[in-house]
Amino acid sequence: MGYAELQVTSNFSFLRGASHPDELVTMAAVLGLSAIAITDRHSLAGVVRAHDAARRLGVRLVVGARLDLEDGPALLCLPTDRAAYGRLSRLLSLGKRRAAKGQCRLTTEDLQAFGAGQILLLLPPVTPDAAFAAMLRTWQRRFPGAVYLAAQRRFAADDRRRLGGLAELAEQAGMPLLATNDVHYHAPERRPLQDVLTAIRAGCTVAEAGWRLAANAERHLKSPVEMARLFADYPRAVAHTLEVAGRCRFDLDQLRYEYPAEDGAETPQQRLLRLTREGAARRYPEGVPAKVAAALEHELALIDDLAYAPYFLTVHDIVRFAVDRGILCQGRGSAANSAVCYCLGITAVDPAQFDLLFERFISAARNEPPDIDVDFEHERREEVIQYIYARYGRERAGLTATVIHYRSRMAIREVGKALGLSEDKVAALAKSGWGSRRQPVGTERVRELGLDPEEPHLARVLALAGELIGFPRHLSQHVGGFVMTRGRLDELVPIDNAAMAGRTVIEWDKDDLDRLGLLKVDVLALGMLTCIRKAFVLLRDHGGPELDLARVPREDAAVYDMLCRGDSLGVFQVESRAQMSMLPRLRPRCFYDLVIEVAIVRPGPIQGDMVHPYLRRRDGREPVAYPSPELEAVLGKTLGVPLFQEQAMKLAIVAGGFTPGEADQLRRAMATFRHTGKVAAFRDKLIDGMTARGYDRDFAERVFQQIEGFGEYGFPESHAASFAHLVYVSAWLKCHHPAVFACALLNSQPMGFYAPAQIVRDAREHGVAVRPVDVNASQWDCTLEEAGEHRALRLGLRQVAGLAEAEAGQLVGRRGAGYDSPHALWRQSGVKRATLEALADADAFGSMGLRRREALWAVRAFQTLPPLLAELPMTEPPAALPPMALGEEVVEDYRALRLSLKAHPLALLRPRLGELLPAAQLAGRRPGRVSVAGLVLVRQRPGTAGGVIFITLEDETGIANIIVWPPLFERFRQAILTGRLLRVDGRLQRQERVIHVVAERIGDLSPLLGSLTLGSRDFH
User: Rounded to the nearest 10 degrees, what angle do helices 290-306 and 268-283 cross at?
Assistant: First the structure.
């Protein structure tokens, strides 16, 4: 006898289900179930993953959701066809949009409005009563032939009596009884984890959860034989599961995406053709190059064949809106392979200058929608987002979801609390997981904390935390992925309110959309675009040239000289520790060198062993040889080393005989070869194809290994070119207008690797005079002031900790000719006393001749006075306040401003550091043993560095780059993770202009800082 399990809660009923959707589907296949439904609470978030697994395993999936009505019963809603699915999705959207994020409010009237085509499985209360019996009859009349009464065996003493009572109620109401098992996990061993999830949801410990916990471990999937045994007295209840599964004919493969399109005299393809031709004429006023014309003809034909014109028009419309509003934007990613995108103004990569591969973007063989990513100024992207909502309506547009998963720290925190572990132990265990987000806390780490990992209770915590890693915790919004449709989006997927006001989010994430072939446009935020626009405005307002991204002078030798020195703090994409080290080795001298620079410091080239061969060939230390002219055409620009995804694909085409579609399949197989094992077939095809064309087999195997090393981490050349454009523009600004660049950077924070203190320090090292925050001179933003032939940088009120922008605006707006005293400032501006104290703490009263203590003394005398007295001048006898020592001033500066113009903390500590070398002296030292100390600016542990830690230390003279090998990290873990001021003893190493210290011993000197509160920036 068959059985279909129709009541299944996955872990996408957040903090309720204890199994992934694919685990449940896999177990259904193992048990031989005829079908399985995923019925998460008020949600369809997990059905795509279940669908993917069901399609792979040949399991019949029934799509549905559990609804808890405010004025009715809990029930399972199962759509029978595509139209009914659309109504269920709209019903869920209705309930979610009228409630706060993560909640859903639905009534019986709502279900009545959207109930056509649904099968409803009513879930009985623990103790059914007369009111429930009457309700069953009402529902049977309201939804004739569509209502079933679900029944479960709860393995309680009154099971038989309760089941009999439910059967009698169903018969009286004229509805069938249907068997379910109220599944919450795929196997019984997940029951302890389900208890923990229940406790987390309830905000209590498992010991305190009481009746909220399940009575036993029976809420797992069971075989048809076992369900037939459990319902032996009611065999038709089991048979009804097959009946319902048969009636539910809807499948997610029936969903069809329609691109947004506007009606008009022109077809979408005709309009796209016209706009492309107009754009090409603007891009190439002297005539479209033959190469570009051929590319446009090829692309437009393929776009026409695949009916993608509405998609390009949609993105063009969004970009047009931004350009019209003066919002800087630039397309990137694989879309930069498109000549059409360039002519439409979406991307900035000129196809006349680059050898683009359109099939990297769109492939007829792949038959998947294109994916265009567009970066917008991060401070103005919300204007673009709200335009999209207004343009399409909330029912036709929504942001993509992002699933927030449990990682090591969150898992250990929440499981530890649920199992009653003390707060100090939970905190210590969570902190010990730095750099291992997806791995449970190791036993060695536990022992380092003085705990016994084999103690039963602690071992249970660690085991359950390990199980929880990777579980979905809740849905958040994608960084910018938008789905827009011609018809109703809420009939494809439910739409929920986001936590951020004014935004709505669909329930599916990027991977779900990819699985179903649904279109997404990435409307992304990029801080550097904000910085560049602000820099352009500052230049214009101070008598400089009128610039935009296309009018910055090209190929400036001074810019490349600066980058060759690794002088790139704040420059887009090349300010990281790894990029700063690569710049002096690569020594870029032209724009294409920047394209390579952006791409080469990436996991793909590093893991594919491409970096060192390229550098050796570039330096002339290794000959550049090509086995054939056709490979020279593919790899000539990169000296025979494939650095880009497009090159890997072209290698397969010209040397292995692949079609463009097959080459893209190879790229995708490489990206997932660890999971699917599909790469073997491509390996044979590539090697056999190359040997058949006369290439040596050893060479062919090396080529494949190199491409395999690329895997999913390879960087498209088009994407690197898009980013290189912003690298050059930001570097040009830094090189020729350092005050403008630093000012724009500060006004665009937070962004990049470095805090305001490092930006200010770097500006001063480039000759920029930096002036302090002042109540009579500073605006909210940092500004430029004339200083002879140069410009000085005036720090803005935004640097003052705890100062609200509205209060600062009030102060500036009422300043007039200036405030002559703290009392005048208080009286005229009307700002709060707390604001005055924050300004005094920031030493911002210099224009009044007051230092920090004097200003604080003055403002703390102010009290709320009657109106008549408030206008009277206040007289206070002068107080003989002792002057603050320089060290105290620096401490207070960092507290109030996060930087100091008076001194660096290490300059004050230098007499106590003995033989430790200042960072600036490292450049003049020979390789050998050295000792340095500095404040921790950055800790990095890249995933491709084999566990190596990179630390950047700062002292009063400069920067020291530290390398920590994994064994040393284990020895000095505590100091490395928690120290704010570190001493490092090690060996100085030099590679060309790159200098670093390989640590041999690390000490924590943080106590020397006393009360100094400097936070480090951790990236891991």
Answer: 160
The pLDDT, as a whole number, for residue 672 is 47
Question: Is residue 977's pLDDT more than 60?
Answer: yes
Sheet of strand 783-787, all strands in order from the earlier edge strand to the far edge: 770-771, 790-794, 783-787
CA 680, CA 713: separation in Å to the nearest integer?
A: 19
DSSP secondary structure of 768-814: --EE---TTT--SS-EEEEETTEEEEEPPGGGSTT--HHHHHHHHHT
At 368, the pLDDT band (50, 70, 90 cuts) reads: low
Pairwise CA distance, residues 231 & 908, whole Å: 81
| Cβ atoms within 10 Å of 833's Cβ, excluding its own | 13
Q: Phi and psi (nearest 5°) for 1017?
A: -105, 110
For 134, phi and psi rounded to 5 degrees?
Answer: -65, -40
d(CA 43, CA 103) in angstroms, rounded, equals 10
CB 335 within 8 A of CB 372: yes
Q: How do strand 521-526 and strand 959-964 relate by DSSP bridges?
A: unpaired
pLDDT over 80 (residue 595): yes
Pairwise CA distance, residues 541 & 535, whole Å: 10
- In whole angstroms, what is the distance from residue 302 CA to residue 472 CA? 39
Spatial distance between the Cα atoms of 641 and 611, rounded to a whole number of angstroms:
9
DSSP string computed for 339-391: HHHHHTTSB---TTTS---GGGT--TTTT----EEEEEETTTHHHHHHHHHHH
pLDDT at 679: 58
The dihedral built from the CA positions of residue 233, 235, 241 and 243, taken in this order, carries a sign that is: negative
Cα separations in angstroms, 116 against 82, 143, 246, 444, 481: 11, 8, 17, 59, 32
Cα torsion at 292, 296, 298, 301 (round to 10°)? Answer: -170
- 782-786: long-range pairs with CB below 8 Å, 24+: 782/743, 782/746, 782/747, 783/743, 784/538, 784/542, 784/739, 784/740, 784/743
> How high is the pLDDT of residue 231?
96
Query: Could you identify the residue written with the tokens 């068997």?
Result: 179
3-class secondary structure, 12: coil
SS3 category, 554: coil
- Nearest partner of 178 among 247, 252, 251, 129, judged by Cα: 247
* Range with top average pLDDT, 42-56, 261-275, 291-305: 42-56
Q: What is the dihedral of CA 910, 916, 922, 924, to 10 degrees?
A: 90
Q: Are 475 and 505 in contact (CB under 8 A)?
A: yes
Q: Is the pLDDT of residue 585 over 50?
A: yes
Given pLDDT bands bounded at 50, 70 and 90, which one contains residue 263?
confident
Q: Give percent of the chain with pLDDT exceeding 70.
A: 92
The model's pTM: 0.85
How does pLDDT run across 822-854, given as a tens digit for each residue?
989 998 998 998 999 999 999 999 999 999 989
Residue 990: band (very low, low, confident or very high) from pLDDT cuts 50, 70, 90: confident
At what angle are helices 290-306 and 309-324 packed, to 10 degrees? Answer: 120
Instruction: Find all residues with CB under 8 Å of 474, minimum gap 6, and list them.
Output: 14, 102, 404
Asked whether the predicted pLDDT for residue 432 surpasses 90, the reply is: no
Torsion of CA 1011, 1015, 1016, 1019, to 10 degrees: 150
**Cα–Cα distance measured from residue 760 to residue 901, given in angstroms and rounded to the nearest whole number:** 9
pLDDT for residue 778 is more than 50: yes
Question: Tokens in use for 668?
Answer: 């995708």
- Non-local CB neighbours of 629 within 8 Å, separated by 6+ positions: none
The yes-or-no verdict on residue 288 having pLDDT over 70 is yes
User: Bridge-partner residues for 218, per DSSP?
Assistant: none
Assigned token pair, 680? 């073997």
Is residue 315 packed enough to be buried (19+ CB in 10 Å), middle (13-18) or exposed (0-12)?
Answer: buried
> What pLDDT band is residue 675 in, cutting at 50, 70 and 90?
very low
Reduce the DSSP state of residue 677 to 3 states and report it.
coil
